[in-house]
Amino acid sequence: MTTTIENADELAAPLDLLLTGSAIGIGRRMLPNTSWTRLGLSLARKPGTVAGRVGALGQELTQIARGRSRRAPRKGDRRFDDPAWQGNPLFKRSMQAYLAAGDTVEALFADAELDWRDAEWMRFVLDNLVEGLSPSNNPLLNPVTWKALVDTGGRSAVRGLRHFLADMSTAPRVPSMVEADAFTLGETVAATPGSVVLRTEMFELIQYTPQTERVASVPLLMVPPVINKYYIMDIAPGRSMIEYFLRAGQQVFAISWRNPGAGQREWDLDAYGQAIIDALGAVERITGSDRTQLQASCSGGIIAAMTAAHLTAIGQAPRLAGLTLMVTVLDQSHAGFAAAAIDQEAAEIAIALSARKGYLDGRALAEVFAWLRPNDLVWRYWVNNYLQGRVPAPFDVLFWNADTTRMAAALHRDMVLMGVHNSLTTPGAVTMLGTPVDLSELTVDTYVVAGIADHISPWQACYRSARLLGAKDLRFVLSTSGHIAALVNPPGNPKASYRVGGVDEADPAAWLDEARTEKGSWWPDFVAWLAERGGPEQDAPRAPGTAELPPLEPAPGSYVREH
């Protein structure tokens, strides 16, 4: 099933789906329900259309059986790259029959003209069924299976079975995307030099070693997501956002969240908001600055925006020199698949399940992420790991993705309910530290980043979210990449570009047509934006921390190593 850039949010899945789906189980999304019934009834009212589609498929299958079909994979479909898919009659016919049937399913789905809620539910079901039934996933029909058997004398089958049993024995029960020892924290990932200067029950605060003689006097505090570890911001030398900011003369601090267990079940939105304020206070004491630039991403961005609104409400807005929200959805109205999949009953079941454990298991969340993009994150590794008996190639981003964390039950509850009710769009509908949250009162200069191919935080939802903010100086940047690549976006990629503009236009699609396009990474644009709000330059600090907050251990610290 395909989509265009303009309606990419129709396939996206914001936070409320991820948090409920991972608690309840992704299998629930595949079970028959009223959406299946409405699909069937809609097609039953169009017998002529259905008969025409089925008849056309039958005719094409006849041509395929006779070897006369010209059916071929779409450009970019790498499942059928092996020459045997074209050269071997059996393999070729199975591929062509599958592609013809898949196109027929897609056409019938479009013919049904379901409303958007039913359409999004059924799109997920059909995507997974169609992609799962590909002959490339069948060990008897994929030529790479036979080639691997011959090349290894049958050892590929033994290795593949061993990989399968190992993966299925523990959550998330999907093919491994990376070996557990492919990278080493502090050496090949999360390697930028720095020191832990504060450790609380909830987080460690890392102060990074300056890489320039002069630095901005206004520091930068980076807040990571609460459902992943922080080092996506410091993924690897040469591709690290933190390293790049340091080389641009920024004083950089980062929060590293503790991985909660059942004993931390009561950590809620207020607790995380207070943690950000505590980190902000430590940054102020260490640097001597009374202002800080706050940058946050994904779920961390939701909490940071609420915390900024709280500071504004209590008269402490001047503490923030700037706010950056990356791939952050605050407005989930018609945000694609999540709005179709989640209801109050499902939310209450998910909340009860996490409350029983005391946390939401990050491995279950990883399973949901994988099945949202089955071809890329499930079936390609099914072929590589099981059919060919290989180990997956090392990739630092996938290593980070597999290094999962838990979410405290209370935070899970707060996040799910806030997403289901879309609370942040209504002033005062939700509170932070006892203060009603009104994002329209948030006037600090703001920089918002989204990814045009993001399947987790759809760019249109990020754009609508930016329009909730009251900032007069707001810059919206749309990167030509997905959820993670929108962040890990170092300069040097000749294919990279981004769109940039304000958020005066109500319609995201109209904004897309009018926005200015720039070549390259958005990182240089962002450091220039930071520099404008970074105050006068000063000599870089000679040592981390202060007498009050001395360095405790080298970065990346201890919390990031907890499993």
Descriptive account of the structure:
The chain is of the alpha/beta class and 563 residues long. The chain has 20 helices and 17 strands. A hairpin with a 2-residue loop joins β10 (431-432) and β11. The longest helix is centred in the N-terminal third of the chain and has 24 residues, at 89-112. Residues 1-13 and 335-341 have low confidence and may be disordered.
Task: Provide a quick synopsis of the model.
This protein has 563 residues and is an alpha/beta fold.
CA-atom Rg in angstroms? 25 Å
What does the largest sheet look like?
Answer: 11 strands, mixed
**Backbone shape:** globular
Structural class: alpha/beta
Counting DSSP E segments of at least 2 residues, the number of strands comes to 17
Ends: how far apart? Answer: 36 Å
Strand order of the largest sheet: 15-14-13-12-7-6-4-5-2-1-17
State mean pLDDT (0 to 100 scale): 92
- How many helices in DSSP terms? 20
